[in-house]
Amino acid sequence: MAPTTNRSRPRISAKGQQFATVVVGKHQDKFIVHEPLLIHYSDFFRAALTNGMKETEEKTVTLAKDNPKVFEIFVHWLYYQRFPNKAHHDDQELVNRYKDPDVLIALYVFGDQYQARQLRNAALSALFYHTLKSDFYLPYESSIRFAYRRLPTDSPLCRLLVDFYCQYAGPEYYRILNDGYPVQFLLAVASRYAELRIWDAEEDLALASYLEPET
User: Fold this and answer.
1) DSSP 29-79
2) What is the top-level taxon of the source organism (predicted)?
């Protein structure tokens, strides 16, 4: 299966459009989405909806373990190619839900699990800019544990979380512990601190260092 590329967006205004049903979460919330959008932006959905198996025939995909609130923001992004924004008069509940670093981390993880590279880059970019503008607090240990459970430790998001803590975290972030930070995360932070000390460097973070290349 060829990966999704930067080909033109589907023409969803054309007549005779195909739709797919995505059933999300333990309560089986149903989302009706243009099939071409799902196929265009996610290799997972492309495979599920075109491989000739049960999902292809029924045009239904079930994501039993995913969060419907996160999936709804993914659907918003599919259609608008941006996240909810008050300036665009988007629904206020969606705007409030999006303005949370935990949600952006969940969106990135969703994009990793379902092979949606452009969503990963969009979520990471939003987390980067909102954090640098001080719109967001730094992600706490619960979100970092979630990211480290679901992603490779050398993933762009995990690297960004390490750099965020090296650059911006004060002592209070290490005092507010529930179940604690992942050991791999603390080791990465310590290693990064050592690099900065040896180089006597104070680097400004650059978004391009974390984005995945276009294919």
Assistant:
1) EEEEEEHHHHHHH-HHHHHHHHSSSHHHHHTEEEETTS-HHHHHHHHHHHH
2) Eukaryota
